[in-house]
Amino acid sequence: MAELKNIAVKKWIGDYSGSIPTLSIVDGVSIWDIAIDNSIIPNIVWRCKSNISGSPIWVKDKGKYIKTINSIIYTVLSTDEILLFDTSGAAANVNVALPKIDISFTNIPFTFKFINGVFGVNIIADEDDDIEEETEYVLATLYDSVTLIPDGSRWYVIPSI
Predict the structure, then answer these.
(1) Residues 17, 47: one domain?
(2) What is the number of domains present in the chain?
């Protein structure tokens, strides 16, 4: 009979300054291990999704970061995940600037939802990037939402279902 070993997920807590953890195979990183960035609030939780080549691939652990925005201009942070927009205090559409696509958040989804107000939300790509060959994506109707995923050179639209 084969003996099964108990495999426990390891957890690291440190100041990664909002960036991908620099932990590697030398540190003993295994798939599903987590690293918690305590440099910002809320803390970012990273999960190791692969370690085949000896260089761990870290992704943000999802489902924890919902932020409500009620300013007329907002710049999306690479650490943002779910953004809810309340435009009730705006006199025109709210402008939301996407960050320049960077390897640290490639293939990480960003979700945007228009939750309150009369004016919509203009999601605008960085001048070097695009959203499926367009410069912006507009949430025009109350409760419209969209998820955008960068692949390293372009943002892709994943419509709400």
Answers:
(1) yes
(2) 2
